[in-house]
User: Fold Zn-dependent hydrolase from Halothiobacillus diazotrophicus.
Amino acid sequence: MFRQLFDDATSTFTYLIADEQTGSALLIDPVHEQFDRDRLVLEELGLTLKYVLETHVHADHITGGGRLRHELGAEFIVGAGTGLTCADRLIADGETLSMDGITIQAFATPGHTDGCTSYLWQDRLFTGDTILINACGRTDFQQGSAENLYRSIHRLLALPDETLIYPGHDYNGHRVSCVGQEKAINPYVAGIDQPAFVAKMAALNLPKPRRIDVAVPANSLCGGADVARGEGETETAPAKAS
Amino acid sequence: MFRQLFDDATSTFTYLIADEQTGSALLIDPVHEQFDRDRLVLEELGLTLKYVLETHVHADHITGGGRLRHELGAEFIVGAGTGLTCADRLIADGETLSMDGITIQAFATPGHTDGCTSYLWQDRLFTGDTILINACGRTDFQQGSAENLYRSIHRLLALPDETLIYPGHDYNGHRVSCVGQEKAINPYVAGIDQPAFVAKMAALNLPKPRRIDVAVPANSLCGGADVARGEGETETAPAKAS
Assistant:
């Protein structure tokens, strides 16, 4: 079972993957403000949330993982490169998460941040901000590295052309792509070698993300300071912070 | 097992679906000139071609189904609305094709032509020329009807948002979309009611397809007159015709 959810305020995709036989579910990149939506979807589908997977420490939104972990008992999983001591599991490159009939493979894809991780389920790749549709994540904060991002993008694009790409965001109404499409027409990929990519990224000159000063500290604590300390009211910490 | 193949000359997608356990395979919308490619792919993957499914009687290319049927023994299946007496099976709206562990459901989707059929496999919808990515099929020949096409498009777009859309063609490098994306940004769908759609289609004023006078007669004979009569050399009939 698969659902693609969207947060309008931050243009963030959240993905639900569940085993229909057992009802076990995981969420990739939930958004704090969408906790009620996510809980309702789980309830309506009769699912039990087992895991929250984060593609990285987000700068544009606070993860819903803190509250989902605290209230629904989900385990919080993030890439080993983040070094987040608050996580239940740090998943390293090549490691897999098994949940009943579902297997998720982790790809360490540093570049947008140094702890970025992409997740492969069957032929569906969840790229976070490593590959966006016709675009890619920026590299000008959080240990961003255009050289690393170039390598990570091309490592993922070595998967079969049919591999579906589900990004962490889209700002133009797109929802899904595939490796073949991104290789053919993504302007950060097609005909762009590493020096050209690095130069292109350096020239972007983007404004600072509006929520970065709130989101990165909260996400570095797996969704909120209270949650990280195990003290309780996850609802209030990120809400106050924002 | 799933493969998306592309014919550069006519920008046509051919889809391969196979059961990995048994090796049984089907092709959707093969192209005559790509017979060798298709046979090679089947051989390399160790597959046996059981069925060729056509989304419609194409005007822009000759189906590979004639030769695949003759040389590889595949059954030729096309929508009941085509009335093609040369077919092995005319599949009607709501009917399914079962091939080992694979089930394909047919949706009669008249509009681009009156015999157009879309095929649903799991959450993957093969729309032929009914829905293209950011576009749709034209309605100015082969019993085309903008009124019917509008109904067919919206019937398909009533499927869940995550349903993947694999079109019959793309001219801009796109390969895959989904129901949610097409509802959001396809300019023939988003914010377009039926009268606006009909007016938009009537104003297109497109040139006549280059191959229509060859392709439609050949495809109306399931890929070639020789094949339809069972007389033999499928290789030459379409080649001569083009």
Remarks:
- The mean pLDDT of chain A is 92.
- The two ends of chain A are 33 Å apart (CA to CA).
- Chain A has one domain: 2-234.
